[in-house]
């Protein structure tokens, strides 16, 4: 079942069997129904329409026994559940261990089943005259799906949602019996393009075993078996192959080894049935250990590949009552008679209690670790189990409304604003109205995929193609192949059989290619439109990225711990970072080496944690210790670095209401919906926020209007500043939501407003800004979308000198294959005669460190921080930088050298900087004048 620990393809660590579960088709509906196909080796003696060992979502077997008053139910996962037979005197029975129940229906001879494996569905079963059962329907809330059978073969041929869709099942006859050959999706004939669409096809080998699964674009997954129907090979459509070595025969087999054609993925298994212990041994020699109860198969203990242990204890009904981590910290659980979790007691003393009614959570109370605070939430439901009211810890109510078919129709917030939803009978959202009253419309294709989104109602016109909208195009298996934007541009995608993008063509027809390692879904190389690339390698058992190689050949290497956490990093420039973990696999130490690799200059940071794993102290390489403290609910309360303390306080909903930084404080209030309503600034000024829907409509300063705002579709279209509207902004946006026009007027001066016009290319890159006061700025971009040039041409006016250098400015940006900026900039007179400087030939880059760029020379420390910059003729200007152990700039020195023959004078300007515990700059000091800015 879903709680069983699995490894590899996957293998159950309880039984050693293969447990392969796949979704083959989905029936549209308010609650979509997934048609699943499962293979398990313990079922290889059971025949099905897929062959031996296979089962599917509609495959259930029932035996009603009046003698011992039981029902034996073999579900679609080939698990056997035994339930007491309900009667009028006892209309419901349950198997708590199996998490299953059955009760009498109002219809004669109909029984209703539910179980965890049904994923929320209630299964309707008719008792037949031979005391077997037949599934006739699945229901959830007000949605009911009907199962139709072939009258001769008694095989399901249709799973129908009366709202407008059906899954159709087609069979072929073989020597071994009937076999499912195809599944199609049918829509009502009133819907355009409603011909049944093939979702998946199946082919079989000579044994009648499922051998091929073919999707609508003819991508094939293949299977091979031994003579006893046990898996020997599985080949995915993309080329990955899995192989098995087994011990035993038939349904008793256990996996000894599994491997594939992907490097480093081999896993060996060891089984000790006497102790209930199993081991998974990986290609690098690391292993995981699992201990299960021999009678109940419940997981008792796990030992991870790094040695981290988790121990579990259970009650008599199989409920988890305690979980103990490697450090001995215990989390406890308690349950009601229906096995709903009613209490969770955490290692730090926090307690959460839950109250249920009919299995629905009604109330949750969260007690702080010190028991001084309580946060209580409540829920209310209608007869059908739909949530109708949520009451937050501040006792504010959010209400929910539902339509007759069981779909959500409205959410009403505590301030009486609301969001409105219109769903069709298949559960597809057709209209959404936000709290501002704006409406968005949606439409779908026959497979239920979104194809249309617009602010214009498509029913308001006879020509939906003329409606300005975003449109999506999908292939036959649901992969997005094109997006058509409202401005007429498009972006297109191609895929491999794993559903991974292989090619992307943007709105300017620029192509990015994605290459993958053979037979795998792991990306190998990305080729950008300018033919530069980035390469990736996966040399570890976790199939995680081990190496990133840029176009210059620089390599970033990552090593992992046996459990897949980062153990060490070698950066592009040769620096190394090492990570150490505690017994619970949480970081406790970070060691960074510069490119020199010297131990004496290594930067070591150590971390201390509480029993919840939260950071309580951080000791920096310079010996400074930063302490962290939390409130009883685990929220960060205080950070103290000994210089600039940070303190926070929260309300009952966990929202920030006070923030104290050093000597300054800020206070926050919220409205009924949880939006920021009032804020007191450190200088004592008070800002108040008013809303229309979700958008700010007005801001007050100390009780007086500061600004007003108008919005449309989430974009601010108008802003007025000042009590009497002294300053006004008006914004206009295009169909893509990009700013097109901005008009700023000052008071009554409407003769000379400030206006800006913005232009974009097809991919949305800014190409021009026209400003009535500042002039025109033009921008170009390279093939990869990076800024290539910026050209500023001011408007002519009387004070503008005649020199060309005052007529504008031109910047040119050149990049290497690793995206390092190699730029040149020059006033327009330097470009006279079309002579443009080419910095590419004079620039030197090593491991992403720029050494020379034009007349600028750079020096670095061993951690890659710039420590000196020399620039200008004869290097007349020198910049010096100092950094702390966290690579934060703490001193900047500017030296201007004046040289004339034997004369030399240097003028220095020095600024120092300090930071808080989060690395935010809190002060700047001019060392010459002593002036300090906070």
From TrEMBL:
Signal peptide: none annotated. It comes from the Bacteria. Residues 9-78 form the DUF6531 domain. Residues 199-387, 471-638 form the Teneurin-like YD-shell domain. It comes from Gilliamella apicola. This is RHS repeat protein. The keyword Repeat applies. Pfam families: DUF6531, TEN_YD-shell. The lineage of its organism: Bacteria, Pseudomonadati, Pseudomonadota, Gammaproteobacteria, Orbales. Keywords: Repeat. Coiled coil: none annotated.
